[in-house]
Amino acid sequence: MPKTRAMTRNEICEEILWKSSPGLTPYPDALALMEGRARAIHEGAATPLVWLVEHPPVFTAGTSAKDADLYNPHGYPTYAAGRGGQWTYHGPGQRLGYVMMDLTKPNGTVPPRDLRAFVAGLEGWMTDALACLGVTAFTREGRIGVWTIDPLTGLEAKIGALGIRVSRWVSWHGVSINVSPDLTDFDGIVPCGIREFGVTSLQRFDSSLTMTDLDDALAAAWPGRFGSIPRAA
Asked: Which domain holds residue 47?
């Protein structure tokens, strides 16, 4: 009987926990959960997790945020997020994908301890998921996030944002994609410090697309970038 060849680490398709929270999750609650989960992953007491949420309207400041880029005419709450990047808006109709993962290990196309590759993987995950929904999205040199051509204006606009924090080589925070938010709420900031471009949403491409459609696309696109299979938490 022939010997069975042992699989290499990169050939093993592991699972990652996948959690979706209904309703609107208060932003401070999300920060507390992420920080605790990242600590537990580092200590070997918890498994990696992708957490899909929506928030009430908030503006969050990254470590490079400038006071002059916040207008906030509605007086929405503001929080120091501790992630990289500048000002970001979160609100109903926007999907947040928080990624808590051990970056000391290889994860699909992402080598160990390679933050550039991790960011590229997150951007690729968003563009792959949007492609599943018939939306062509892309990245631009010098601009973090994911862009597309707004079908109403014909101009480049941002559809997906990205901001991460890494603590002891465990990631937290993650990505956001606009499904059906009130786009005028983004007028309260200069999104990510970029003044030249606007924002858009999935429903400008197809008004029938839902949050569930995006969640399904994100789960389908995940293994191609990160090598693990989503498993419901």
From this structure: 15-228
- Provide the pLDDT for residue 68: 86
Q: What is the pTM of this model?
A: 0.91
Nearby residues of 52 by Cβ (< 8 Å), 6 or more positions away: 18, 19, 20, 21, 95, 96, 97, 98, 215, 218
- Residue 35 burial (10 A CB sphere; 0-12, 13-18, 19+): middle
In a domain, 185, yes or no: yes
Q: What is the CATH number of the domain that holds 119?
A: 3.30.930.10
pLDDT at 231: 95
Q: Are residues 219 and 95 in contact, defined by beta-carbon separation less than 8 angstroms?
A: no
Looking at residue 191, its pLDDT comes to 62
Handedness of CA 119, 124, 129, 135 (dihedral sign): positive
Residues annotated as catalytic (active site), given as ranges: 192
Is residue 49 helix, strand or coil? strand
